[in-house]
Amino acid sequence: MTSIPASLPLRNDLIGEEPYGAPQLDVPVCLNVNENPYPLDEQVADSIARRVREVAQTLNRYPDREHVQLRQAFCDYLAHESGTRLGVEQLWGANGSNEIMLQIFQAFGGPGRTALGCDPTYSMYPEYARDTFTEWKVIHRRDDFTIDLDATLEGIADIRPSIVLLTSPNNPTGTNLPLEDVRTLLDACGRIQVAGAAEGTHPVVVIDEAYVEFRNPGTPSAVSLIPAYRNLAVSRTMSKAFAFAGARVGYLAADRGIVDCLRIVRMPYHLSAITQASALAAFEHTDLQLRRVAKLRETRDETAAWLKRQRYHGASLQVADSESNFLLFGKFDDRQKVFDMLLDRGILIRVVGPDHWLRVCMGTDEEMAAFRSAFTEVLSQIDD
Ligand SMILES: Cc1ncc(COP(=O)(O)O)c(C=O)c1O
């Protein structure tokens, strides 16, 4: 809970608001914030230590504001991971994709502008909108959590947003957004004039690919569409697949024009020399870092199959199709009770998304075994 004296001139629209964030509890098994459960390899940690040591004596100077070396590393990684080679001027980094997204809202949102998304989706989006005085509107996803393409196209035509923000795979559902749909949306946005903006302006379509490395093999990334669409931006992060959440590194791939818009709103020297050095060190070991992504995909598929075999009040559980490192499962009459009972057993998951559903992110084999055993116990007690 916040403790804000009434004498402080907090913005009127922020009065009564609470800071965003899942509880950070000290429990044995944390499966609540979609982190990568595997610590960095020794070799990666050593490279980070070496690179950080090298920059330590230059910390009296500001870092490279344009973080060119790191942007080159993003390019090389994307060429390797998604098969699309972009130029350095098409990449941009920030402190987590949270900051990338805030910069997008700062550059393209604002008073009189609307951003459009498809819910249920990542719960930070309305906060970026609030913080930049942008209106946030949503089109509801279908029952299977895929986007309703026709309704979304209609929404875009009616609202004429400046930002269309879609997540693939989506959080908290894990749903992939087919590239064909992205193309259809981009083509539609190319024909739409943004409400309240200058003649000839079109919505920016942002695909948040925070979890994209966990997608099923063979699924293309929206990065492959960047050469063809100037209004497309793809946001990525090192937090998930790279097990780098604590380092805070996110990045954006887009046409150079979009990157130049973000350069206008970024804070000067927003990426510290230590952050840049750490990320460069992690990219020295891309294959090692990504080895565990395949393992987490397996864990996800096994856990989904196991959850579907569990019974709650005599019926099988539902599990949303996920191409991510987490699963949304339900439905529970009282999801808070299930969450609390798991927490009593040392397992922290997340109450998020539509009512009656819970989200669990994939852990190590030991953590998943602990989850299964606690959840089996919870289900049997509930059904007693
Ligand atoms: C969909 C989505 N986008 C972006 C983020 C932000 O990630 P980060 O700021 O760590 O890059 C998250 C974090 O959980 C997320 O779920």
UniProtKB/TrEMBL annotation:
PANTHER family listed in its UniProt record: HISTIDINOL-PHOSPHATE AMINOTRANSFERASE, HISTIDINOL-PHOSPHATE AMINOTRANSFERASE-RELATED
Name of this chain's protein: Histidinol-phosphate aminotransferase
Record's keyword terms, sorted: Amino-acid biosynthesis, Aminotransferase, Histidine biosynthesis, Pyridoxal phosphate, Transferase
Transmembrane segments: none
Cofactors: pyridoxal 5'-phosphate
Pathway: Amino-acid biosynthesis; L-histidine biosynthesis; L-histidine from 5-phospho-alpha-D-ribose 1-diphosphate: step 7/9
EC number: 2.6.1.9
Cell cycle as UniProt keyword: no
Enzyme type, top EC level: transferase
Domain of life where this protein originates: Bacteria
Organism per entry: Bifidobacterium fermentum
Residue positions where N6-(pyridoxal phosphate)lysine is found in the record: 240
Catalyses which reaction(s): L-histidinol phosphate + 2-oxoglutarate = 3-(imidazol-4-yl)-2-oxopropyl phosphate + L-glutamate
Subunit structure: Homodimer.
